[in-house]
Design brief:
about 110 residues, three-stranded antiparallel β-sheet, 2 helices
């Protein structure tokens, strides 16, 4: 079974269609401090496919990274909405882990 299947109103499926974040989105204050971190968020994918009601489940420890993560998810991310057993688009919860790094080599292990 595809890992994007979730349980709720019967089996529902949602697929991300667009939206991304890059190191260019890191706030200048965080960039200058050479900071990195992971932000865990939960949000709702509406029946219209838009992300809304983003909230931090686990902070990166850097308020600027946390804030920009939710702001960009709600502004940029679009999904094929979940469907109920009759095929109607429905709102559904979604989780996301954003790994922020500065050096461009990809996610770094945080020890």
């Amino acid at each position: 079974r595809d890992p994007l299947w979730s349980r709720g109103l019967g089996d529902v499926y949602k697929r991300q269609l667009s939206g991304a974040m890059t190191r260019k989105d890191i706030p200048r204050s965080v960039w200058k401090a050479d900071t990195r971190g992971n932000v865990v968020v939960r949000f709702t994918v509406g029946a219209d496919g838009r992300a809304r009601d983003c909230r931090i489940s686990q902070s990166s420890g850097h308020p600027a990274l946390d804030k920009i993560t939710c702001r960009l998810i709600e502004a940029r991310f679009r999904f094929e909405p979940a469907r109920d057993e009759r095929g109607r688009a429905v709102a559904s919860p979604y989780g996301w882990v954003q790994e922020w790094w500065r050096d461009g080599r990809g996610p770094q292990r945080l020890d």
